[in-house]
Every structure is written in C-alpha cells, then in structure tokens.
Automatic annotation (TrEMBL):
UniProt-listed GO biological process terms: proteolysis
Protein name stated in the entry: Zinc carboxypeptidase
Alphabetized GO MF terms: metallocarboxypeptidase activity; zinc ion binding
UniProt xrefs under InterPro entries: Peptidase_M14 (IPR000834)
Membership in a protein family: Belongs to the peptidase M14 family.
CDD domains reported in the protein's UniProt record: M14_REP34-like
Domain Peptidase M14: 27-304
Length: 304
C-alpha cells in the first residue's frame, strides 16, 4: 500500500506556495458530490426527532455553506455530554456518513444517560470536492487553535464556547485513505516547499489518542466494539502506523494540543480520533460507516 513519492504539479520544488500557487490549486478543484443531497436532506428528515440548529455559515469565494449541529431533545443538565465531530476532513466519507448514521440509529438509545452534541460535517466544501483542505489550502485538523486560520474550526469552537457545555467525551471521526499518499501528502509537501515522503497506509481501523491523556481503557473499549464490525490495523514492519509508534494494538498517540487537532478543542477527559480504511479489500463503505458508529457506541458503553 506504499506508493512511490512524486513531485506535485503545482509550485516549484523547494519553494513554499504563495497566493498564486494556492489560487492555482483552488481552481483545479471540482465538485464531485452534493452536500445538500447527501447531508442536509438526511438532517432535514431527522429534524422532528432532534434539536438541529444552524451554528454558522462558511463564506468562501467558491460558495456559502450552512453548518449544523445536532442535539438530543431530552437534554438533561445532570447528564454528561458527549461530543461527536465528523467531516473535519471533508474527503473522509465515513466520518460524515458515520456521524449521520449514529444520529439516526443510536443517539436516542443513549440519550437517557448522555447529552449529545454532534457536528456531522464541519467541512462541506471539502466533502463536495473530496478534499482534505479548505478553499484556502488550510488543513482544518491542524487549525483548532486560538485565532484559527480555518473558518471551519473557528465557527465550531465559537459555538461550543458560547454554549458553555462541560464535555466529558469527544470522538472525532476520520479515515486514512490511499489518497493520503497519492494526493494529500504530496500536496502538503509542495505547499510547504519540502520533500515528500509517504508512509505505509494501514489496512484496517485504528485510533489516534492524546499522548498526554491517553485513557488506555477507554481506547481499548472503543477498539473492542469496532472489532465486531471490521478488522483492526496491524502495525507495519517497523512496529508503526502512519510512521507513529504503536502504543498498543490499533492505537497511536500524539500531543494533540500542540498540533491543533480537533480532539484538543475541549477539556474532555476522554478523547479519541477514529481512522477507518475505506480502500481495504476487506471492508465495504457500509462497514466503514458502521465502524464509526461502533466507535462511538464503544465509548458510551465504557462510561455506562
């Protein structure tokens, strides 16, 4: 699954992109699927069952995108609150569709004991164009920081700050795809003026935890639930996943606060980032969606 490194067609090797290169990149992007059709219509169908609110709108030269958050109607201030985020990277399909499926099939089953705040698609332009970045060539999942350069991050952080909710759990739904090596890592290297080096793409599901607050039992509970749906990724010959040392089977970790990752944006005690592998010959798109649902359910079962 390792692909050969290649020179990206935009920019000059060794020179970081300027505005001209970023515009050239943006102009090369095309719409490949429809946010309204695949996301908003599903939310509209679920509206009678949940509290669904627009929390902002992305304002780009390429278009405007309304953003929505879902909560359970039987909100109880005495219950702990679970935050689920999907579509931080819009191209990671099961992150979005898995979040929607969790809302539709499981959220109500646990709302007696938990409050839920679910952002099913933080990056709708990325979803439509199948992109990791936003239109400004910024990676949202490195931008959950003060004065964020990404509208997607700033809007969700502002909403949570205004809501003033104590979050106990945050599960962020992602994928690792073959296109990480064929497109996104080469593009990142070109943008930064660096030499691209690809990593091995893990075949299977794994988690990314916070190395400064790993909560290993919680991570293991999530993996055990997912294991019933799809296979857990094996470490490569160097004992790594995406070039990171494995903490335990199916789990790696990073200092998420310093990296500006999504799971750093609250003070939640339990946090994890899921990584599904949709290009596996051993998994279907529906299994990938179900694995995302299982990840959230596994975390909830651990806390009950």
């Amino acid at each position: 699954m390792t692909e050969q490194n290649r020179i990206y067609p935009i920019g000059t090797p060794g020179k970081p992109w300027g505005e001209e290169e970023k515009m050239q990149w943006l102009q090369a992007q095309t719409k490949k699927r429809d946010y309204r059709e695949q996301v908003l219509t599903k939310l509209e169908a679920m509206a009678p069952r949940f509290d669904i609110q627009q929390y902002g709108s992305l304002e780009y030269s390429v278009g405007q995108y309304p953003l929505f958050v879902v909560r359970n109607k039987n909100w109880n201030s005495e219950n702990p609150t679970v935050l689920v985020t999907g579509g931080v990277h819009g191209y990671e399909t099961s992150g979005v569709q898995g979040a929607l499926q969790f809302i539709d099939t499981e959220l109500e089953n646990y709302s007696e004991h938990f409050n839920f705040v679910v952002f099913p698609c933080l990056s709708p332009w990325g979803y439509e164009t199948i992109n990791r970045w936003n239109p400004d060539a910024v990676d949202p999942n490195r931008s959950f920081i003060d004065d964020s350069p990404a509208q997607e991050c700033a809007l969700v952080m502002e909403h949570l700050e205004q809501a003033d909710i104590d979050i106990l759990v945050h599960i962020d739904l992602h994928e690792t795809t073959d296109s990480d090596n064929s497109e996104f890592r080469p593009a990142k290297a070109a943008r930064e003026g660096e030499v691209n080096t690809n990593w091995n793409i893990p075949d299977g599901f794994y988690l990314v935890g916070d190395s400064e607050n790993l909560q290993l039992d919680f991570q293991q509970a999530v993996l055990n639930e997912v294991r019933q749906v799809t296979h857990i990724a094996d470490a490569d010959e160097d004992g790594k996943l995406i070039d990171a040392t494995v903490d335990t089977e199916g789990l790696i970790s990073f200092p998420v606060n310093s990296l500006g990752l999504c799971i750093s944006m609250t003070n939640a005690m339990y946090t994890t980032t899921t990584e599904v592998y949709p290009d596996s010959a051993r998994a279907t798109p529906q299994e990938c969606n179900q694995a995302q649902v299982a990840a959230v359910v596994g975390g909830l079962k651990f806390l009950q």
